[in-house]
Amino acid sequence: MSEEHAEPADSWIHSLGRHVLAAIVLLICAFLLLHFLFGLIVFVATIVAVVVAIIGAIWAIRILFH
After folding, report:
1. Element (H, E) at 61
2. From CA 23, how far away is CA 30, in angstroms rounded?
3. I need a labelling partner for 26 at 20 to 30 A (CA). Which of 10, 19, 54, 63 fits?
């Protein structure tokens, strides 16, 4: 008789544990990537806001003192 197709009782628990661990790792990676992406977007938006503020200040000074 062949016992190749019979899975031990611990096999599905081991497989489930690996799937749970993989899901946790994937969630942590997604969180870190989204956190980095959010920080990058805030950084770029800050630079854009500063440039727009400088341009607006220069424009206002030119209008007021022209």
Report:
1. helix 9-64
2. 10
3. 10
* Complete DSSP assignment for 6-60: PPPHHHHHHHHHHHHHHHHHHHHHHHHHHHHHHHHHHHHHHHHHHHHHHHHHHHH
Q: Helix, strand or coil for residue 4?
A: coil
**b/e string for 23-60 if b means 16 or more Cβ within 10 A?**
eeeeeeeeeeeeeeeeeeeeeeeeeeeeeeeeeeeeee
Q: What is the pTM of this model?
A: 0.62
Q: How far is CA 41 from CA 31, 44, 48, 49, in A?
A: 15, 5, 11, 12
When pLDDT is averaged across residues 34-59 and rounded to a whole number, the result is 98
